[in-house]
Amino acid sequence: MDIFCRQVIPYECLNLSRVKFWLRIMKEHSLFMKLGFACTDVELIRQAEQFYAEFEDLEKQAQCINNDESFMAFVEKIMVAVKNIFAFKRHVLHLLVNCKIGGSNYPLLIDHISREAMYFCKLLGKIRDGDIKYPVDSIVSDNVFWLRHMADHARFIAGLLDPSERDFVIKANDFAAQFERLQLQARDLDSMLWHMGPNSDLMRFETDVTAATIQIRDFKKAARNLISACKIVSLIPPLLADHVLREAEYFLQVLEAIQEDLHCMEESQIKTCDYPES
Ligand SMILES: [Fe+2]
Ligand SMILES: [Fe+2]
After folding, report:
1. How many domains in the chain?
2. Residue 231 CA to ligand 2 centre (angstroms)
3. Ligand 2 midpoint to CA 60 (Å)
4. 65 and 180, same domain (yes or no)
5. 278 CA to centre of ligand 2 in angstroms
């Protein structure tokens, strides 16, 4: 299921380093949006700048969190800011798809970053909601979310590279197709395993997804290094290249936690199924 569905809850748990990661991501989204607005859309540029300053300030505040109580109060504060930036992104998307504004923000990019705001919002909300009733549902929906995002990144890279960079454009499109296929497979597992425990197909799928994500992470790292060294021509700012690389690294951390937990779940299933020795 998609991140906008009410039942979808991220699998991972919130901690301060994840909060810091997402605050930086939200701050950078504000900057990317600002850079993509037409220079005549001064009000939208002003709002994007305001969000940038707000998330920059929250990042500074995050450095001072040193106990559970201040962390919980901080989470409530961030939640308000994230809901506001989510509404702003959806508003801009509405303007774009109805051709009310121009500029160079792809509508899919704005949709993509609004999904990330929703994911962060749900991650923050999870701290109040307690344990997940159906962990496999969350594991699979996290895969659907992140695989879609890896595919989107590859499509954005392909669309922003200079057309003369033919080999890189082909590679980026190949990654997009690979991650779109994996996303479809994750959607199949989503309904097939709904409200069920893990099975070996899911374990194998997570291994395949990890291998593919390591490859796209390496591709993004190479692209980021080439862009930073001005060895490739594109419309991709170095910060955007670094941003999508960090998101791939984050997904790999999520996958690592999922695989560890799946092994534990499998072991406990084997133990419960063991017959007592006669
Ligand atoms: Fe992002
Ligand atoms: Fe992203």
Report:
1. 2
2. 24
3. 23
4. no
5. 56
208 and 232 assigned to the same domain: yes
Instruction: Find the 22 Cα to ligand 2 centroid distance in Å.
Output: 11
Residue 4 lies in a domain: no
CB neighbour list of residue 65: distance below 8 Å, 6 or more residues apart: 16, 71, 74
Q: Are residues 87 and 138 in the same domain?
A: no
Whether 16 maps to a domain, the answer reads: yes
Q: CATH code at 107?
A: 1.20.1260.120
In the reported structure, the alpha carbon of residue 271 is separated from the centroid of ligand 1 by a whole-number distance in angstroms of 41
Tokens of 44: 């939208």
pTM above 0.85, yes or no: yes
C-alpha to C-alpha distances, 123 to 60, 188, 240, nearest whole angstrom? 20, 24, 23
> At which of 87, 106, 130 does a domain end?
130
Q: Report the alpha-carbon distance of residue 133 to residue 203 in Å, rounded.
A: 20
278 falls in which pLDDT band (50, 70, 90)? very low
pLDDT of residue 271: 58
pLDDT band of 6, cuts 50, 70, 90: confident
